[in-house]
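thought: user wants a sequence for this fold. calling inverse folding tool.
action: design(structure=
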């Protein structure tokens, strides 16, 4: 899953906190300096004060004489203005997604709105924009970092409306604020959703024991199944009742309800209006102007090629699932709710890999410890758990991160891995506070968290994970390391291009398919032994099982996103979903009343950007070729990856990062090989990287 930008993208000031600034080499305290357990009143008061102070700083920049403006007193000062968002602002805007306290969540929503509104106003500030334009053109900035800052301020100011006439700028600012509100309300509705289905005792037969033990029984002997990110994988892959799976799947695509459908419709209308005001033909064109892809046509051509090349493989896979369904005595057409179940059956019967057996080798504590050890060895870092955790809820774990060689502190990370009511539902990394190594020598230590929803353990037993769960965790930990190890002098330089941001984590998913690594992270919950070598080989041999369908599904979701954001007229989101699905995945029925109501990506920073998962995977797989050559646990390759890819962050364009690490331009061969595609060509070099 993608990172969630708690502070909307329009806020170009990162949340930088003075209490985290310390001497190089000093040990990190247990507390991050952030307040994760405020009262609602304290949160609101602290947030208002922080925003007021930051606005005063921006007003002082605006009031400075135009002829006397320098980098230090404009853009440099604007970056430092983030310090005025203090300890409380960094954590308060995050708590609406995770706090167990409803009053705090409500207050956090208000704070988030205040921060979003501030960000919109600053992004559209004509004085800061004018200073950025002048500095970018002046040729007086000898420092490469300052030149990049000026370039990014010009880019973001242009996209925020700073270059428009005053009347249009006022209108654009109001529209952005409204859009931020709608997107936040969408996320809150998903987090608050408590959809359930009821299944009979017969329908519950075959369910994964860990899931079954956590279900609430009814007086009539039935079970209540929560419909959520934590249960969808285990339920659809192990419940033998096609009727129960169909009910679950339909309920899953009703989450958020018609209210979220209306919010998407509102967001699409707002985005279309904004694109027009900025002089773009549609929202996708507006968004991609600052992405690597640059143009919607390149994206749709890229997705069409993937869809065309994968179609035979996807059709063959679906035909195989349909045959298994018929053999089981069910002659109805295969549907999307069947795919996980019959894929698991195929693994068990034909390939002799039982997902439930594999799960016994992945107890949560072993997985976490194993993943920590791999990242420590590969990237030269050290994790020390802090107990008790200074966190927002019971069960959240906190770790201090330091450099293994120098012992210098790097930051803090949190793991919040199990579901609870009203918590953010997906699996994602939240960069709460960025890393900043300021020119004056002060250091702001980053704080990040993985927010997840793994299946809850059965009473008295450890939680057990699927191989897919472990891959997801390894992916998100890659995001966590990117946020922790970035080493830039200005906050704005820590942000990666949207269609590259997934590449570092996608590259690291490859480790979960290496025999030595799988043996290292696994321990049988009963015997303590690692995965047997023969089982590992069978698991690896299945890496491409279902890949045609799964990657076609990703291409479909990306194309649906692009269709919503390139249409010249308002679309019916359900009709469009069905139309694009029929064209791109004709061999499967994909049910759902309100599929867009829970498609959080297009309301959480990936609007006209979902294609980035496939686009950035090309970079990810090409980056991995060096580890294929040097060894997946090569310390030299790992440290080069840290220094060449993670530390520069957004201070260099993705193509330049890749060239530094590989010594050559991007090559798509590894990407298409990973998809099982032959004879495909890449969409050309990325204009943003030229």
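)
observation: tool returned 690 residues.
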């Amino acid at each position: 899953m993608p990172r969630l930008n708690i502070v909307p993208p329009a806020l170009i000031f990162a949340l930088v906190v003075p209490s985290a600034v310390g001497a190089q080499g000093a040990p990190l305290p247990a507390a991050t300096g952030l307040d994760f357990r405020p009262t609602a009143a304290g949160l609101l008061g602290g947030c208002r004060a922080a925003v007021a102070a930051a606005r005063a700083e921006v007003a002082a920049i605006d009031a400075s004489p135009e002829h006397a403006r320098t980098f230090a007193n404009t853009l440099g000062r604007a970056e430092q203005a983030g310090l005025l968002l203090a300890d409380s602002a960094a954590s308060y805007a995050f708590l609406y997604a995770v706090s167990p306290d409803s009053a705090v969540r409500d207050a956090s929503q208000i704070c988030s709105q205040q921060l979003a509104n501030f960000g919109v106003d600053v992004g559209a500030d004509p004085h800061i924009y004018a200073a950025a334009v002048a500095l970018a053109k002046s040729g007086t900035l000898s420092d490469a970092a300052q030149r990049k800052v000026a370039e990014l301020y010009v880019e973001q100011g242009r996209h925020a409306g700073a270059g428009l006439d005053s009347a249009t700028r006022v209108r654009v600012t109001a529209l952005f604020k409204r859009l931020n509100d709608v997107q936040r309300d969408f996320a809150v509705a998903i987090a608050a959703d408590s959809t359930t289905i009821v299944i009979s005792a017969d329908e519950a037969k075959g369910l994964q024991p860990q899931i079954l033990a956590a279900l609430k029984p009814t007086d009539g002997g039935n079970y209540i199944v929560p419909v959520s990110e934590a249960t969808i994988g285990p339920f659809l892959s192990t419940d033998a009742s096609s009727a129960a799976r169909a009910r679950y799947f339909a309920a899953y695509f009703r989450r958020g309800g018609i209210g979220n459908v209306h919010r998407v419709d509102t967001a699409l209308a707002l985005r279309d209006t904004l694109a027009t005001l900025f002089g773009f033909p549609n929202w996708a064109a507006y968004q991609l102007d600052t992405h690597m892809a640059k143009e919607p046509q390149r994206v749709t051509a890229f997705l069409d090629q993937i869809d065309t090349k994968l179609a035979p493989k996807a059709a063959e896979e679906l035909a195989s699932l349909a045959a298994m369904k018929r053999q089981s005595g069910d002659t109805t057409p295969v549907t999307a709710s069947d795919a996980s179940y019959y894929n698991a059956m195929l693994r068990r019967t034909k390939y002799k890999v039982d997902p439930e057996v594999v799960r016994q080798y992945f107890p949560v504590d072993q997985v976490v410890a194993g993943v920590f050890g791999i990242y420590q060895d590969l990237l030269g870092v050290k994790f020390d758990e802090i107990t008790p955790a200074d966190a927002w809820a019971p069960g959240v774990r906190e770790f201090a991160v330091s450099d293994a060689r120098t012992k210098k502190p790097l930051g803090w990370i949190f793991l919040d891995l199990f579901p609870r009511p009203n918590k953010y539902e997906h699996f994602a990394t939240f960069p709460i506070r960025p890393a900043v190594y300021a020119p004056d020598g002060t250091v702001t230590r980053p704080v990040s968290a993985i927010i997840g929803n793994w299946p809850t353990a059965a009473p008295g037993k450890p939680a057990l994970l699927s191989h897919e769960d472990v891959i997801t965790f390894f992916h998100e930990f890659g995001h966590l390391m990117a946020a922790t190890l970035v080493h830039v002098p200005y906050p704005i330089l820590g942000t990666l291009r949207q269609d590259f941001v997934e590449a570092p984590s996608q590259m690291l998913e490859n480790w979960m398919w290496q025999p030595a690594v799988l043996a290292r992270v696994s321990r049988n919950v009963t015997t303590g032994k690692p995965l047997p070598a023969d089982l590992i080989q069978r698991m690896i041999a299945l890496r491409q099982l279902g890949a045609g369908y799964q990657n076609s599904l990703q291409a479909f979701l990306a194309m649906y996103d692009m269709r919503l954001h390139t249409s010249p007229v308002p679309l019916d989101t359900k009709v469009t979903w069905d139309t694009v699905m029929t064209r791109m995945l004709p061999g499967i029925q994909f049910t759902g009343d309100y599929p867009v109501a829970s498609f959080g990506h297009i309301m959480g920073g990936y609007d006209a950007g979902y294609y980035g998962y496939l686009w950035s995977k090309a970079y990810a797989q090409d980056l991995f070729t060096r580890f294929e050559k040097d060894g997946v646990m090569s310390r030299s390759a790992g440290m080069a990856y840290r220094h060449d890819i993670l530390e520069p962050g957004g201070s260099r364009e993705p193509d330049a990062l890749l060239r530094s690490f590989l010594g050559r331009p991007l090559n798509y061969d590894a990407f298409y090989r990973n998809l099982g595609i032959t004879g495909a060509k890449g969409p050309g070099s990325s204009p943003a990287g030229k």
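thought: summarizing for user.
answer: Here is the designed sequence. The first strand starts at residue 196 and ends at 199.
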